[in-house]
Design brief:
A two-stranded parallel ribbon has the order 1-2. The protein starts with a helix and ends with a helix. The radius of gyration is 29 Å and the shape is elongated. It contains six helices and two strands, in the order αβααααβα. It has 171 residues and is mainly α. Helix content is 73%, strand content 5%.
C-alpha cells in the first residue's frame, strides 16, 4: 500500500513537472525603436500622409472660399444661380470627403502603404521570436507593450534583446 502511494505521488509530481510552461516577454515598442528600417518606414509614412492631408485641406479650403463668395453674392443671385452655386459647393465638399476616404479610410492608400512597409518588419520580428521560442522551449511569448493586464514581470524573462540580436541589431 505504501509503495503504491509512493508510486502515485511520483507519477503525480512528474505529470506536474511535464505540464510546467515557460513564458517569455518581449517589448515590441523597444524592439521597433531599435530597428532603423522601422524608423525610416515611419518617416516615409509621415511624409506621404502630410502630402495627402495637404491635398485634402486645399480642396476643403477651396470649398470654403466658394461658400464665402456665395454668401457675399447671395443677394445678387437669381434662384437658378443660387442652386448652381450651392450644387458646386456641395460637389467640392463631397470631393474633399471622397479624397479623404481614399487616402485615410479603413482600406485607404495610407493603410495599404503602412501594411506594405511594416509587414516585412513584423514578419522578421515574428520569425525571430518563433526561432528563439523553439530553441529555448517557450510555450508563450507575451508583448508587454500591448498587454495591459501585466502589472509586473521579471526582467529575467524579457527576451527583447535576444530578438534584436537575432535580427542583427545587437544591443
Amino acid at each position: 500500500m505504501r509503495k503504491s502511494l509512493l508510486i502515485i505521488g511520483v507519477l503525480f509530481a512528474c505529470s506536474l513537472a511535464s505540464m510546467a510552461q515557460k513564458f517569455a516577454l518581449i517589448d515590441m515598442e523597444y524592439i521597433l525603436k531599435n530597428i532603423p528600417a522601422y524608423e525610416m518606414a515611419n518617416e516615409q509614412l509621415s511624409q506621404v500622409s502630410g502630402k495627402w492631408q495637404n491635398e485634402v485641406d486645399a480642396i476643403q479650403q477651396e470649398a470654403q472660399n466658394m461658400y464665402k463668395a456665395y454668401q457675399s453674392d447671395l443677394v445678387f443671385l437669381s434662384a437658378e444661380m443660387k442652386t448652381k452655386r450651392e450644387e458646386a459647393i456641395v460637389k467640392k465638399e463631397q470631393e474633399a470627403q471622397d479624397l479623404k476616404r481614399k487616402y485615410f479610410g479603413a482600406e485607404g492608400e495610407l493603410f495599404k502603404k503602412r501594411s506594405g512597409l511594416m509587414k516585412p518588419i513584423q514578419d522578421e520580428i515574428y520569425n525571430a521570436v518563433k526561432e528563439i521560442s523553439e530553441d529555448k522551449g517557450y510555450q508563450v511569448v507575451i508583448d508587454r507593450a500591448s498587454a495591459m493586464s501585466i502589472i509586473f514581470a521579471s526582467p529575467k524573462i524579457d527576451i527583447s534583446n535576444e530578438v534584436l540580436i537575432k535580427l542583427g541589431y545587437s544591443k
